[in-house]
Amino acid sequence: MAELDKLIALAREIKMTPTELEAQRRSFAYGNAGFENERITRAMIDEQAEKLEKDK
């Protein structure tokens, strides 16, 4: 258990780059959308994410 606590503490110190955060956000969106509708593709998620970024 102490080893797991040590790994968790180390993981808390990791600072993700904006690129890594965006990749994680898209992966999360794909996973959740794909669960609801298997016709959703990663390309569709990327397309919508890029459209949202342009609209900011």
Describe the structure.
The chain is mostly helical. 79% of the residues lie in helices and 0% in strands. The protein is built from 3 helices and no strands.
Give the strand tally. Answer: 0
Q: What percent strand?
A: under 5%
Oligomer: single chain
What gap, in angstroms, lies between the N and C termini? 45 Å
Radius of gyration: 16 Å
Give the count of helical stretches: 3
**Largest sheet report:** none
Which consecutive residue ranges, at least 5 long each, have pLDDT under 50? none
Share of residues in helices: over 70%
Shape call: elongated
- H/E element order: HHH
Judged by helices, strands and strand pairing, the structural class is mainly alpha
Summarize this entry quickly.
By secondary structure, the chain is mainly alpha-helical. The chain has three helices and no strands.
Keywords:
single chain, 56 residues, elongated, mainly alpha, 3 helices, 0% strand
SSE inventory with pairings:
Elements: H1 2-12, H2 18-36, H3 42-55
Helix pairs in contact: 2-3
